[in-house]
Amino acid sequence: MRYEEKRPVRRRRFTRRQILRNRIIFGAVCLLLAAVLILGLRHLLAGGGEPDPLAQTGQEEAQPTSTPKPYPVDMEDWRMILVNAQNPVPEGYTVETQVADSYTGKELQTEAAGQYAAMKEAAQAEGIELLLCSAYRSVEYQTGLFEAEQAEWLAQGMTEEEAYNKAATVVAIPGYSEHNTGLAADIVTPEYQDLSEGFEDTPAFAWLSQHAAEYGFILRYPEGMQNVTGIIYEPWHYRYVGAENAKYILESGLCLEQFWDLMTE
Fold this sequence. Notes:
Strand content: 5-15%
Distance between the termini: 100 Å
Low-confidence stretches: 1-14, 53-60
Structural class: alpha+beta
Helix content: 40-55%
CATH class of the largest domain: Alpha Beta
Mean pLDDT: 85
CATH architecture of the largest domain: 2-Layer Sandwich
CATH topology of the largest domain: Muramoyl-pentapeptide Carboxypeptidase, domain 2
Radius of gyration: 39 Å
Number of domains: 2
Number of strands: 6
Number of helices: 9
Largest sheet: 4 strands, antiparallel
Order of helices and strands: HHEEHEHHEHEHEHH
């Protein structure tokens, strides 16, 4: 009978332990739920919205990046074409020209011709005479100019390679000349018609420096830029790029090659 009397006592002890354990578990669960609820409310109040699965794993969502261009210039604009020793006139390039200067009969690409004529008239109204001495050239004509320049250096004792390289700093290689595009203009004045640095001392050059960009023309081969352009300083050589483009190029203080590098990097 002693054995039977002990069984109820043992059952009561087990029940109390179980109740105590359940109460502990229940309390822990309540605390956990309360913590989750508090954190969730804080997140919503902070404007967090739906949780970011990448943020939960410590990762950040990759955002696409793009470098903003410093000037609003469309580099695919046909007027911004870059032609130099490394960039020939595009294959199949065609150009429509018209007489830009009635005195010399020289032609430029149609739009450039109209703008040059307007610039010449504006300069004349201020007592400045502009003279377009060289403009559009066919590749064949350019070849004759280049070979004549090369022959002069050969006559001075240079090797053919040396003469070729020297000529290329003065006359663009045929097919690699802006004159072949109809957008390049060699501008002088009746009082000074030499294609030399002395042109920079004329009133015509001073006027062009102030107003050429208004008509879409930039000084193509600035002083101190031969290592970039490959061409010596030519204060008489201007290039049509359009008035809006010329404004930004002038503002940048860069030559055309540098501007291209800046806008296409």
